[in-house]
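Technical annex, item 7. During the second reporting period the consortium partners agreed on a shared format for inverse folding records so that results from different sites could be compared directly. Each record opens with the tokenized structure and is followed by the designed sequence. A conforming record, contributed by the partner at site C, is shown below for reference.
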């Protein structure tokens, strides 16, 4: 039995031969010169024959879907994926995770185990070690894209990114893989890169101020001097926090 390719070839050859035969048979036929009647085509009919734009062309020109808010549960998942980006979760990161999770979700303690287990199921999809980051990114993408509008969909993209930065810096080690994943999230949420860079700069300044404040408290200086310096640093921290709040509210 001939295979499909041979069948197709045979059909094509037969059709080609038939066309040649027809062409040869009509070469000597005299066709009378008939003038086509002048038919006026209504505009409505003309519109039907206009070439319609292809659907994929229309889709490509459409604006990308903008994520305006993320559900609490999915935001917590994204935070967990970021914590896992460097391959290990530090105690300080977990403490910060619990603090942010409790702030975002009043029922966080009851929901935490299930949320973490769902993240771990995604992370078990790693086949080879080099797949680890890609699997995390897939998990983040799924969490963001499946964040449908619900009653608790109140976490804005910029607020999520700020929380992610506080997690990333909680162990005072901003790993390269963490920053790579954060930049992906910033692009996915369509956040202006200047806003993200300003957030990074702000949190670095806050960390430096906190270190300086801790050092002053241990310095061998008069109490009033230490108190004045501590108050000045606290005021500077408040200014930065207000600036970040304004960024998030933009």
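Designed sequence (site C submission):
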């Amino acid at each position: 039995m001939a295979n499909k390719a041979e069948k197709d070839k045979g059909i094509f050859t037969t059709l080609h031969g038939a066309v040649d035969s027809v062409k040869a048979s009509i070469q000597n036929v005299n066709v009378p010169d008939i003038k086509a009647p002048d038919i006026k085509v209504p505009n409505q009919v003309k519109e039907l024959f206009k070439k319609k734009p292809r659907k994929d062309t229309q889709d490509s020109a459409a604006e990308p879907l903008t994520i305006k808010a993320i559900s609490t549960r999915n935001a917590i998942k994204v935070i967990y994926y970021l914590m896992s980006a460097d391959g290990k979760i530090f105690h300080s990161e977990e403490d910060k995770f619990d603090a942010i999770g409790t702030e975002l979700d009043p029922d966080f303690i009851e929901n935490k185990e299930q949320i973490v287990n769902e993240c771990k199921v995604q992370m078990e999809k790693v086949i080879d070690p080099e797949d680890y980051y890609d699997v995390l990114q897939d998990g983040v993408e799924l969490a963001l894209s499946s964040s449908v509008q619900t009653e608790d969909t109140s976490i804005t993209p910029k607020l999520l990114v700020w929380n992610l930065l506080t997690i990333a810096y909680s162990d005072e080690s901003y790993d390269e893989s963490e920053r790579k994943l954060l930049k992906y999230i910033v692009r996915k949420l369509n956040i202006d890169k200047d806003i993200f860079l300003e957030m990074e700069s702000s949190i670095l300044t806050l960390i430096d101020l906190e270190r300086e404040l801790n050092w002053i408290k241990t310095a061998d200086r008069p109490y009033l001097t230490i108190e004045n310096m501590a108050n000045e640093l606290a005021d500077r921290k408040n200014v930065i926090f207000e600036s970040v709040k304004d960024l998030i509210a933009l």
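The CA atoms of residues 23 and 29 lie 11 Å apart. The chain has eleven helices and no strands. All partners now use this format for quarterly exchanges.
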